[in-house]
Specification:
Blueprint: H1 6-17, E1 25-34, H2 38-54, E2 59-64, H3 76-79, E3 86-95, H4 98-108, E4 133-137
Antiparallel strand pairs: 1-3, 1-4, 2-3
């Protein structure tokens, strides 16, 4: 019987060394935040993002725009209608799998979920949430 091929060995090695798993799930967000509210946004995110990790997210990343080229048709700023006094934030939440994500979101979005961190009177979002874009993604390549 022949030993495993080089391709089999490479596949097995790459599968065992990936940072995530093939079954992980990602929530992605892009939003416009008033540049003057950067510190307010950081403090807001530090409070609210812990909800995701408490419900099973493995990682939450918030990124403040640093180098956003202007596109001819579209770009990050146009996507969220950012004004001259706003900065773009790109964020993602990593989940171990879609089932964990779905269970967490069902709890968080339920009518009976109460948490001061999501109370808009006690912890208002320092941005226009109507211009935030978001969605769920299944990773297809991970190096």
């Amino acid at each position: 019987m022949q030993s495993e091929t080089a391709a089999d060995a490479i596949l097995a090695f790459s599968s065992s060394t990936q940072r995530g798993t093939a079954m992980s799930y990602i929530d992605g967000f892009v939003m416009a935040v008033p540049t003057a509210n950067k510190e307010k946004f950081v403090e807001y995110a530090k409070r609210v993002d812990t909800i995701f990790t408490e419900f099973g997210a493995t990682r939450v990343v918030e990124c403040w725009a640093d180098d956003l080229p202007d596109g001819e048709v579209t770009d990050f700023r146009k996507a969220v209608r950012a004004t001259g006094d706003e900065s773009v934030v790109f964020s993602w939440v990593e989940w171990p799998d879609k089932a964990t994500h779905d269970a967490a979101m069902a709890k968080i979005m339920s009518d009976d979920f109460e948490d001061e961190r999501t109370d808009q009177e006690k912890n208002p979002m320092p941005l226009d949430g109507k211009r935030m874009i978001f969605g769920g993604f299944v990773p297809i390549v991970e190096l």
